[in-house]
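[scheduler] slot 2 assigned
[scheduler] job type: sequence-to-structure, two independent chains
[scheduler] chain ordering preserved from manifest
[runner] begin chain α
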Amino acid sequence: MMTPPLLFLAFLLLSCLPGSLCRVTTVGDLSILEGRSVMIPCHYEPQYASYVKYWCRGRVKDLCTSLARSDAPRGPAAPGEDKVAIFDDPVQQVFTVTMTDLQEEETGWYWCGVEVGGVWSADVTASLHINVIHGVSVVNSVLSGEEGTSVTVQCLYSQGYRQSEKRWCRSGDWSSCLVTDGEGRYEDQAVEIRDDLTKAFTVTLKGLAQRDTGWYWCAAGQQQVAVHVLVTPPATTVKPPPEETPQSVPVSPSVPPLCRHIAEGADHHRPLWEFPLMACGVLFILMVLVLLPWKILDQYNKTHRTRQAEELEARLSDSPGDNWQNTSVVFLNSASQKVHGF
């Protein structure tokens, strides 16, 4: 049987095994430019929502120096004492540590900690190393833009380079460098450089062309960092074809009702064979060709009969008064209506 000291040691080892629920996690090691700030999230398990959180510095966790605690009173900070702040969010199970105006001497090991307390329980912690460097960096080391447009590179530098001239160069060619003046400015038709004289300068490449593709340097003092710029052809905008609005088929009033119904129901999106409008048109033409001669012949017969009647009336009116009684009118054919006088 295990003795009480061994049981206590076994409990501590089990409580710290990787994958156990009692743990804190944070980001990996960081490199920060001197004079910059950093925010570090420390995640913990739900059972620690009400516990005190802290941030400390030191190579060994049990000997680290506390820099901020979540239970510390939040009053007005004295000058120089607001470099570190801690904020706990129990809903999201994370507390955030903010460190401002970092200096090179602040390089070291730091710990996110949850104060568990008690004889049988150890604090749960997670460590990371912060390296405060003296140099230059960029926000984005790879940028791209279309021909004719502009891109802006943001170059960051540490506090020691505030008074140094800033340069923008083609990689590997120091003779191509464009240098800021005493006010931290440079500008020509293609490049504009603006230095805020505190921690960053921006380089804007204007009117990009294919020849601008390549590697460049952001430089301050003797430090430089590489940036790649890619210039792409302008995007071509393809306009979609205009949508055709269905239109009704005009139908002549003289078209037969059957054909008119077919024509009015025609849809140009449907196959032509579904609507034999052409057949109806041909049928209409044939009807006109058959009826037109009959109509002309009938009109001719009417005109001819009218003329014969007029001639007969004229003849009777011209005859002597004694002879009209001896005149006979005989209709030989009632269908033809021909009149003969004797």
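[runner] end chain α
[runner] begin chain β
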Amino acid sequence: MYIVALYQDPMHGKRIIISGNDIGMSLVPKELSISDPILLRHILCLIIVIHNVFYMILCCRQLKLCKEYKAPPPEMEGVMSQEAFEASKEKQLHYSYLELFNLIVDTIYSCLDLYLCILAHIWKLTVNWYGHTNHVWLNVTFMTLFSTYLVFRMLPSLFYEKLVLDPKYNVDPEKSPPLVGLICAMAFYVVFLQIGIIPLTTILMSIVRMSVWYFVLIAWLVLVLVFLLMLVTVGIFGVPCLGKSRLLKDSDMNERLRLVLIQFKFPGRVYLVHTFHVGRPTAWVMGCFCCLRLDIHDNLKLHRGLDANDLQSGQVGAGLNDEQLPAFVAHQLAHWKLWHVRKTLAMINLSLLLYLVLFGLCYKWQTLYLAAGFTKFYPSIVGFWLVYKYLMPVYYTINAWIVFFFLRHFEYAADAYVVRRGYGVPMRAALLKLFADDYEFPYVDHCYLMWHRFRPSILQRILNLQRLEQNRRVSIVSLI
């Protein structure tokens, strides 16, 4: 019904007028009840402030740690020079200060959106422009203006990064796009974004007309089916956008790599992916059941498996040798053997289900819209933003800690598995070599890591591998 109405002439019809009273910019609640929109507005802003201040504290902890350390860790002696350490430190400081600034700006914008009723003003402007059209066109126009407003909210961050941080931390202008280019790209992005606004808004409005619990169930089932379909698809075709895949036969593998596949009894196919660009070197197991495959990116191999004369100067010496590569592949096969991919998908789908249930409980809450400055006549589509932005931060924080904790545990478990198989020493060497190929700041604050990294840092994994290898040797000696 909505899709049919979408193609009607938006300039014909009875003019719509916003009726009813809104709370405006009132600050004093009439009653101390959660049903009072003014009090709820204060509570929503308090949630945003507490959430963002918490992440600001984490950023400050990481910044303090960055400034404390003056040299690379002893475990990376001979791998990371002092110059490389300083460069990685400046990069981390740049990133952390930008993140801190974005949190401050987001806090200000989020509170002003409620106290100044900015979303309600965009809605009034929409109704004034398209007062003769139906509710679908009003929502589409509102989303067009609102999405443009969200894009332009990024300007302070852009100016701060280009005018303050880049000169301070000596960012190479040739490796970073200019300010004028980014502003032009933002203008293009605003135009390009509108291509998806009309169909997405129409679909969402069609969905929310049904019972909210039907919506929760259908949305979750669709997401589960999409995940399963993606799992089967990548198992058959891989990820073509990353590069061209070539099936590896036994004759194309060295003896150590064949031994790893035999030890782990890997039943799938093995492919070498010739990446279109030099991205992060990795290998992974994709798919499920009969559609299982192991993809090894060519930049994971030493010299990308080519002669040094055929490579650019920056690619010479990069990658893992014939002893380190099988250990890294063994780590990825350990993830498959321990069912980590399936456990991760189960966690993600459970988190989505819980989020949708919470969304279903909050979306129809009229006081939420009144707290944002709307009357009882408001754009249906804005509820997605209000619930996501103001009611869910507590859920995101708790959920991120739980999911990231298990993902980091999976990395440690896979490392422990390969150590038991005798690949501890080459795995440690592989991590050091990959770190040497692409430096990052080696130190990470423990609290910062819990909410920002789904993998342990390289230094943490190296120390853990050393400990596991020592325990393994002690066990072998005690058995002898």
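[runner] end chain β
[qc] chain β: Residues 82-115 form the longest helix (34 residues).
[scheduler] slot 2 released
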